[in-house]
Amino acid sequence: MPDTAPRVVVLDYGSGNLRSAERALAAAGAAVAVTADLAAAATADGLVVPGVGAFAACMAGLEALGAGPVIAARVAAGRPVLGICVGAQVMFDGGAEHGVDTPGLGLLPGTVTRLAAARVPHMGWNTVRVPAGSRLGARDGDRFYFVHSYAAQDLGALRATGALVTTGTHDVPFAAAVEWGALTVTQFHPEKSAGTGAALLRAWTAGLPAAIPTAPAPAP
To answer: One GO MF term, please (predicted)?
Structure first.
């Protein structure tokens, strides 16, 4: 990897497909470190927050590490953060699983709730609809790989912040990805999404290390 490759930290807080994310990001052109070192997470060109399993367990891992303020500070400073799957969900105000409400990091509005679908989990390939202006490198109809039973579903609240919301549908519409200032989150797994996922990670990596303007103001 050349010295000019952007430096990306995959945050190791005890949850996530760390090695598959590491390999996919390296293939996208990043110099990748998998670490729990918060100083490295704060100063890297890009920070990736993966996550699998339960919302509450992922939040407990982030809190034990003390990672929440580092993630929030990066977003406030316009330094890119990418959240994947439950690592995306924890960026919201909270999650409601099995009758338990767990606060999230509060960087995006809304509560992550169970999909009101005939069959959950939503597992496998599904298409997305991509808004104009997206930096994801994806197009309407592109297919990504999903494994989840919960999602952010208040699309109106997200769009009211000025965020770009890529949507998916599994009986009901949900946020498949959100771009808000320096923060990008994907409910799907780009590292498991073959060519479309690789293109997304290349697009995200290509934007590093340049800072992204701070999040847009809410719509009037």
So the answer is: imidazoleglycerol-phosphate synthase activity
Quick one: pLDDT at residue 21? 96
Catalytic hit among 22, 85, 122, 148: 85
Phi, psi of 165 (to 5 degrees): -115, 115
Q: Which amino acid is at 53?
A: G
Among 122, 148, 170, 189, the one annotated catalytic: 189
| 72, containing H or E segment | helix 68-76
Q: What are phi and psi of 99, to 5 degrees?
A: 80, 5
Q: Does residue 34 contact residue 18 with C-beta atoms inside 8 Å? A: yes
The single residue of 22, 58, 148, 191 carrying the catalytic annotation is: 191
- pLDDT of 219 reads 46
Q: Yes or no: say if 181 and 212 are a contact pair by the CB < 8 Å rule.
A: yes
Active site residue 122: no
Contact 157, 110 (CB under 8 A): yes
Nearest Cα to 45, choosing from 53, 63, 55, 33?
33
Nearest residue to 26 via CA among 5, 52, 11: 5
Only one residue has tokens 């990418």, namely 82
* 85 has catalytic annotation: yes
Domains recognised in the chain with CATH numbers: 7-206 (3.40.50.880)
Whether 22 is a known active-site residue: answer no
> CA 169 to CA 214: how far, in whole Å?
29
Q: Reply yes or no: is the peptide bond before residue 121 cis, omega within 30 of 0.
A: yes
Strands (E), 104-160: 108-114, 122-127, 143-148, 150-152
